[in-house]
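We modelled the chain as a single entity of 319 amino acids. Its sequence is:
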Amino acid sequence: MRVGVFTPLLSQLPLAAVLKKLKSLQIETIELGTGNYPGDAHCKLSMLEDGSALAEFEKILADHGATISALSCHGNALHPDKARGQRDAEVSRKTILLAEKLGIPVVVDFSGCPGDSPHATAPNWVTCPWPPEYLKVLDWQWNEVVAPYWIKHAKFAADHGVKIAIEMHPGFVVYSPETMLRLRSIAGTSVGCNFDPSHLFWQSIDPIAAVRVLEGAIFHVHAKDTQIYAANLPRTGVLDTKLYTEERDRAWIFRTCGYGHGAEWWSEFISTLRMFGYDNVLSIEHEDSLLSPEEGLTKAATFLNRIVIREQPAAAWWV
């Protein structure tokens, strides 16, 4: 296991400066956005057609001894706005091609969310089974939109030797282990998950137990925490639509690793990941509204590096 960083939090810096900064934190593995929600500050899809830019990009990585854990293009290819959906889908398609060219095995994405009909203009995330029209919407979404797109897109990824790691994120059709496995059963084994425990905490899903449920389907992991504010839960419940910056009144907010759950929890999480077949990167994602990117990154890196070093398996004396 090793610690990495998802670099949008450092988008104001050029790639070489990012790598130098991260090396000072004992981190040499990065996850790079290529467009859609993460942006493309450090990895341009235009490199597919620009050999000199690609060579320069690879030289910067080599000069700093850096490796890439994944390319990320979190978007909504199923968006009912056709132009928006096609744009996000094209970014995802090109990201897969760039990952193939760079020898990167994983692309991180969202599952997407359609509208409620062919005439919709905005996504519609269904969260309850009643009134019954909600289940009709859900059936239409999965059968008419989700399945056709993901069967085709997963095959495209597999044909290019790339796996797609879906981040289980509320607001999209895949937001839980059950919905993740449903998509995987439809699209095949080239689709798995980018496991971000922060999105599970507030849904009352135990991330450590979820690792066991998702055995064999975890392709990449984000390191991000969540703090629950029990004082606000009786008023808001967990489906809290207030801005993340309204920290005093929210039921929960995203936190830097260690600020929602301590070292004991993260140690067990890392050990369970390894136990169930994932022994790769913990990619720090900063979305803590109470800490600056500099503070959040430094604290998360220090916190996780101590745990990862301690959790590395030692050679057994009987071998």
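As a brief sanity check on the tokenised model: DSSP finds ten helices and ten strands in the chain. Residues 2-311 form a domain with the TIM Barrel fold (CATH 3.20.20.150).
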